Amino acid sequence: MLAERIRRVSPSATLEISAKAKEMKARGEDVINLSAGEPDFPPPEEATEEVCRAVRKGYGRYTASQGIEELRSAIAEKLRRENGIECTPEQVIVTPGAKMAIYAAVMVLVDPGDEVLIPEPWWVSYPAMVELAEGRAVYVPTKEEEGFRLTPEAVGERITSKTKVLILNTPCNPTGAVMREQELRGIAELCQDHGIYVISDEIYEYMVYDGARHVSIGSFDGMEELCITVNGFSKSYCMTGWRIGYAAGKEEIIKAMTRLQAHSVSNVTTFVQHAGIKALGADMRLMLDEFDRRRRYMVEELRKMPGVRCIMPEGAFYVFPNFSAYGGDSKKLAMYLLEEAKVATVPGAAFGREGHLRLSYAVCKGAIAEGLSRIRSALEGLEHESDSPRCI
Ligand SMILES: Cc1ncc(COP(=O)(O)O)c(C=O)c1O
Questions:
Q1: Blockwise average pLDDT, block size 10, the chain, 392 residues
Q2: Which of 233, 234, 346, 358 to mutate to test the pocket of ligand 1 (most atoms within 8 A of CB)?
Q3: Is the pTM of this model over 0.90?
Q4: Which atom of ligand 1 is nearest the CA belonging to 244?
Q5: Contact, 142 vs 149, CB < 8 A?
Q6: Residues 6 or more apart whose Cβ sits within 8 Å of residue 77
Q7: In the prediction, which pLDDT does 16 show?
Q8: Which of 55, 184, 225, 314 has the fewest CB atoms lying closer than 10 Å?
Q9: What is the DSSP secondary structure assignment for residue 89, as one 8-state letter?
């Protein structure tokens, strides 16, 4: 019954595990969810007030598919000020989440058989999007001992005459890796030499720690025509369910994405677009400071566990510890921890990297402490290779 294109795509593994955890919770089980992909903070007050005001003012009719001018101008200004990207409002599209922006960019750029470079570990939806566009995902490995940062050398090795697009994600979900400017410059050079488009997913741009700096590849000379910069309000402003994100790039590409959006979702919910203007630039420092504290705490605790290796991530709100001393089957381990310790995590296999689990610290410190303590006890019931180094 179902079309081939959707039969090839499996459900999001991150959604699967959180659904199972929710199910257990609904049965009254005391589950600690460390699989969350959303901040546990409220959206900025100014956005909440504006959304109510906008509803009352009757901002509930269709808008231009590309998004309201006022918001696109505010986004263009933000990109200029914070990211060093010069673009006009005409080069910006407002989408229902960054996810739709990435999907639309893939759909308008990738022809059947085109190769799309995806750094591994990857965010779960990238391969599925490429699959839906009938492109071919080509994975570019990163090394744990290099902090999972993508190198120009690794990218260069996988470029062929069919390479059309590179999807970049910095700061990275699931590893928390933050790309350095020099590495990005090397990658930008390769893309320019080979005419490769970059979809730069910068949704975690504000979540950087230990002095790491987020750099937008789209700000480099020569990338104006090649880079589609994607961002959104879900993580920065805790507006996950509001469904609002955006992309900026060459006008021809943005117009094509707008055509796709016009014939599929029409426009982002009108009153949410109004609230987006108010959210941009809201002060989220309290949340970021708290994430930083939780990050350090989580890594310290994980490093105390026998056989567990954990690099200190510099960005996003996840840690990606290595549990391969416990057998290497991440799905089995995640399921064991869910059933035995009642702690939900995401298996590394979902991101293409076995032996790891992704743990989120976008949950309160008490839950993190209890969750880690339960994981520690549950691991005691398992055999592990004792010579595994605890950290690198
Ligand atoms: C790397 C990455 N990109 C994009 C998204 C999608 O965000 P949005 O809610 O804006 O669609 C997520 C959400 O988890 C993500 O982790």
A1: 91 71 91 92 98 97 98 98 97 98 98 98 96 97 96 98 98 98 98 98 98 98 97 98 98 98 98 98 96 98 96 98 94 92 95 96 96 97 66 34
A2: 234
A3: yes
A4: 10
A5: yes
A6: none
A7: 67
A8: 225
A9: G
Distance (Å, whole) CA 111 – CA 164: 9
Q: Best of 203, 231, 358 to mutate for ligand 1, by most ligand atoms within 8 A of CB?
A: 203
Residue with the nearest Cα to atom 13 of ligand 1? 37
Domains of the chain: 4-42+284-380 (3.90.1150.10), 45-279 (3.40.640.10)
**CA of 98 relative to ligand 1 center, distance in Å:** 6
Nearest ligand 1 atom, CA 38: 14
Read off the amino acid at residue 157. E
Rounded Cα–Cα distance for residues 204 and 217 (Å): 14
Please give the Cα distance from 201 to 88 (Å, whole number). Answer: 19
Rounded Cα–Cα distance for residues 34 and 40 (Å)? 11
Distance (Å, whole) CA 169 – CA 229: 10
The one-letter amino acid at 75 = I
Amino acid (1-letter code) at residue 54? A
Rounded to whole angstroms, the Cα distance separating 193 from 198 reads: 13
**pLDDT per residue as tens digits for the range 332-391:** 999 999 999 999 999 999 999 999 999 999 999 999 999 999 999 999 988 887 655 443
Atom number, ligand 1, closest to the C-alpha of residue 169: 1
Helix-strand-coil split of the chain, %, nearest 5:
45, 15, 40
My answer on whether omega of the bond before 96 falls inside 30° of 0, hence cis, is no
Ligand 1: residue whose CA is nearest its atom 6? 99
Q: How do residues 173-195 score in pLDDT, each as one tens digit? A: 999 999 999 999 999 999 999 99
